[in-house]
């Protein structure tokens, strides 16, 4: 494909800093502005209606997403999670960019702001298989992932905790760089992601993911 047909975000490999936080591992912590992960879709002229913050420690990864600019409630159904509005995260605990099919160190997680429970008003967290993977990550115990959500006048906020035991091969001391990609699916405002569009196979190809650098707090 000629380079002048590529979106600008496809010309770069991004590395994002993820700062250590001592309270990671439980819901309800505050992540300040230094925990904001930049998104690069605006490089391609796309909208920016999603803010994602991240933190880590040896016990877990922690994410907070804010979705704004909405007039409608998100459409979510636990029994149709692949079609639902919400946050998708892809994480490779080996940060491998020279493979096009996921290894056992590659994970996909899905977090919905609602769609669970009898009234469909409870948030949902799930591990999903990656299409065309050479090997699948270890399956996790039910309810190991943590999720919380709150409505906003023009959108919603969602908080997600992924414990270390849910990440095959997670070892921050030996492997402080993770392959990483995120996407927020929304029927009203459209899908927004860290970079690239659905024309690129980021849902299954670790070679196009960015790098998340686990940065330790100063002592």
Structure description:
- The protein has 219 residues and is mainly beta.
- The chain has a domain at 1-61 and 81-110 and 166-219.
- The protein has strands spanning 15-20, 36-37, 50-57, 60-67, 86-92, 106-116, 122-128, 146-152, 155-163, 177-185, 192-193, 210-215.
- Strands 1, 2, 3, 4, 5, 6, 7, 8, 9, 10, 11 and 12 form a twelve-stranded mixed β-sheet that branches.
- It is globular, with a radius of gyration of 16 Å.
- It starts with 14 loop residues before the first strand and ends with a strand.
- The mean pLDDT is 91.
Short description:
The protein is mainly β.
Number of helices: 0
Task: Compute the CA-based radius of gyration.
Answer: 16 Å
Given the helix and strand composition, which structural class is it? mainly beta
**Number of strand segments:** 12
Global geometry: globular
Task: Write out key terms for the chains shown.
mainly beta, 12 strands
Topology:
Elements: E1 15-20, E2 36-37, E3 50-57, E4 60-67, E5 86-92, E6 106-116, E7 122-128, E8 146-152, E9 155-163, E10 177-185, E11 192-193, E12 210-215
């Amino acid at each position: 494909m000629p380079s002048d047909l590529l979106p600008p975000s496809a010309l770069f490999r991004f590395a994002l800093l993820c700062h250590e936080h001592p309270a990671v591992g439980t819901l309800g912590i505050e992540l300040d502005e230094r925990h904001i992960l930049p998104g690069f879709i605006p490089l391609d002229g796309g909208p920016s209606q999603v803010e994602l913050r991240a933190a880590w420690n040896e016990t877990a990864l922690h994410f907070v997403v804010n979705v704004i600019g909405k007039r409608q409630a998100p459409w979510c159904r636990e029994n149709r999670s692949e079609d639902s509005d919400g946050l998708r995260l892809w994480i490779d605990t080996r940060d491998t960019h020279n493979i096009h099919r996921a290894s056992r160190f590659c994970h996909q997680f899905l977090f919905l702001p609602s769609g669970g429970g009898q009234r469909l008003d409870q948030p949902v967290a799930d591990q999903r298989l990656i299409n065309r993977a050479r090997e699948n990550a270890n399956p996790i115990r039910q309810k190991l992932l943590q999720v919380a959500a709150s409505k906003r006048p023009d959108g919603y906020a969602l908080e997600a905790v992924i414990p270390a035991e849910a990440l095959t091969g997670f070892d921050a001391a030996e492997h402080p760089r993770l392959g990483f990609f995120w996407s927020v699916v929304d029927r009203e405002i459209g899908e927004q992601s860290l970079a690239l569009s659905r024309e690129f196979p980021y849902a299954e190809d670790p070679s196009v993911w960015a790098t998340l650098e686990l940065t330790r707090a100063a002592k």
